[in-house]
Amino acid sequence: MIKRPALLLTVLLVIALIVVVTYKIQTDPFNNTASSEQNSEMMQEFGSIYSVYQHNCLTCHGRNGEGQSGFPSLQKTTFSVEEIKQIITTGRGEMPAFPHITELQLSQLAEMVKQLSD
Q1: Contact at 8 Å (CB) between 32 and 65?
Q2: Phi then psi for 73, rounded to 5 degrees?
Q3: Residue 34 and residue 29: Cα distance in Å, rounded?
Q4: Distance of alpha carbon 116 from alpha carbon 67, whole angstroms
Q5: Rounded Cα gap, residues 71 and 94, in angstroms
Q6: Which of 21, 31, 36, 49 has the most crowded CB, counting CB atoms within 10 A?
Q7: 47: helix, coil or strand?
């Protein structure tokens, strides 16, 4: 029989806490620290509009549009460029609107998102 149930319970709780914290760190959708090499690759491909993407979209949709836990991938979008522009401007579902993005940025960002799905 167990002589020290409090000690066993404490050890089990510590192990469970370690497992939970490790899981959260690995699946945190807001932990998007892209290396400078990865960022420069995206900057080369998409130019300065990628910095707008980083500031407004990366947290939920990921570095390459792959989507994060609970957020959709942009790599599989079937929306047209015009539909993407509308969604960025007005929001959709849980996605907020981004009315502060200029018309030029909006066009470039929508084109970039469409290219991610090609």
Answers
A1: no
A2: -80, 140
A3: 13
A4: 12
A5: 9
A6: 49
A7: coil
Q: 96: which DSSP letter?
A: P
Name the pTM for this structure.
Answer: 0.64
Question: In angstroms, how far apart are the furthest CA atoms of the chain?
Answer: 73
Confidence of residue 78 (pLDDT cuts 50, 70, 90): very high
112-to-17, 61, 85, 102 alpha-carbon distances in Å: 41, 13, 11, 15
Identify the H or E element spanning 9: helix 5-27
Residue 57 class from Cβ within 10 Å (0-12 exposed, 13-18 middle, 19+ buried)? buried
- Separation between Cα atoms, residue 17 and residue 40, nearest integer Å: 37
Residue 95 pairs with which residues in a beta bridge?
A: 92
pLDDT given for residue 98 in this prediction: 95
Mean pLDDT of 72-89: 94
Q: What six digits make up the tokens of 76?
A: 């599989």
Specify the range with the lowest mean pLDDT, choosing from 13-17, 74-78, 98-102: 13-17
